[in-house]
Design brief:
homodimer, DNA polymerase, domain 1, 11 helices, Rossmann fold, globular
């Protein structure tokens, strides 16, 4: 990532920061693989974790397109687990326990301290596709000191639908221009920017493993680009 | 309060505790009066605070009864402020700023530490009639370390309607019997118990001032009666 990209376009500091969680705050790939290994010792745990996550977007797509009502991500994860298990030729003894892998993700190392710093100056909340229950339990395990839980469940729809960002802003009784979306994924930021939010890109270049080719660089005119959450806190609030 | 009432009816410890906030966690009367005095130095600030709070139940009643769609409490508070100001013959110079009194309530002295202790063993969340925005800002000022914000806004209705308690339970993906409602108000606990929740009564005998006559004692067979939040933590989790 370029060292020289300044914080730009910030007319004023955000009053709230809302965060993508799965790849931006937590290392889902390594964490899920570790738990898969405990439950299904015969499979390639990383390949299984990636395949499980691979079902994520297709499962949400039906809901975004209106072909299915809102179903919490916990249930989609369980459906996807059964589908991927069949593909790998295994049957989890306790699917519900394995499904709770998504509540036990490790944060990236800078995240707990970085969030605590940001929280001193602004409201912080997830704007994730995870449910309130999932985000709540994950926060307890990963030490994510959220002020409240926003995201898909309060919008009853999934990112990157505009309503999800706008529902988060409305729940805080703020205007979109007072809220900053923080993500490691350019498409998430494009969607948030399109409805008027400030944006911060924080790359997570090993979210998909050491050979990752996507989201290594900002692809939009984001309000801020930071190396990690501590750097974000420094750039926004000094 | 009797010293001898034991914790009763607890088949198992709650996985989550949900809390009434305005009188149970915070001293709204003293706090609002202090801020009223700053904004309206000519009025009897305690009388004004009590009159403002007196409009609370009537304003919600219309919504509970279906005569009006869900309106966040922030807006009801502002409507009630204008009504009470007229009655007292005053005009706030900045009604929005005065309305934020409800975001700046002092916690009862045991609350921050007691909640931190409870949080080590269970999910903790408000189940208040306050909005997500109001509960979020109040938590930041009063040091209430919630795991998430539940209550009226996610139910789109007001306590003591059963749906508000059940929406909180559902958001946590738990059963009602796994969740304990904590309140200083017996009617709140009656409503929660009626839909299957565990209940804890924590009296706040000066919520309405030194002459308070209501809610000094438990009036139901609550799962637990505690002197304060630290006592509640000890009774539930040792």
């Amino acid at each position: 990532m370029p060292q020289s990209i300044p914080t730009r376009g910030l007319q004023s500091s955000p009053q709230a920061l809302i965060f993508d969680v799965f790849g931006t705050c937590t290392d889902w790939r390594t964490s899920v693989a570790r738990i898969v290994h405990d439950h299904l010792p015969t499979v390639d745990a990383v390949a299984f974790a990636e395949a499980w996550r691979g079902e994520y977007q297709p499962a949400m797509a039906r809901i975004r397109e209106g072909g299915r009502g809102y179903v919490p991500l916990d249930d989609l994860h369980l459906e996807n687990l059964m589908r991927v298990s069949a593909r790998f030729g295994v049957t989890p003894a306790d699917p519900d326990a394995l499904n709770r892998a998504w509540e036990a993700l490790d944060p990236w190392p800078d995240v707990p301290q970085g969030l605590a710093r940001l929280k001193r100056n602004a409201i912080i909340a997830p704007c994730s596709n995870g449910s309130i229950a999932l985000m709540t339990r994950l926060a307890r395990q990963a030490d994510l000191p959220w002020d409240c839980i926003l995201g898909a469940e309060i919008a009853q729809d999934y990112k990157p639908k505009p309503q999800v960002y706008l529902a988060a802003v409305a729940a805080l009784r703020l205007d979109p221009g007072q809220v900053m979306m923080v993500a490691a994924h350019n498409d998430d930021l494009h969607a948030a920017q399109a409805v008027g939010l400030m944006t911060a890109f924080v790359p997570r270049p090993t979210e998909h493993g050491p050979q990752q080719t996507t989201d290594l660089e900002p692809t939009g005119a984001w309000s801020c680009v930071a190396h990690d959450f501590n750097d974000l806190a420094m750039r926004l609030f000094g």
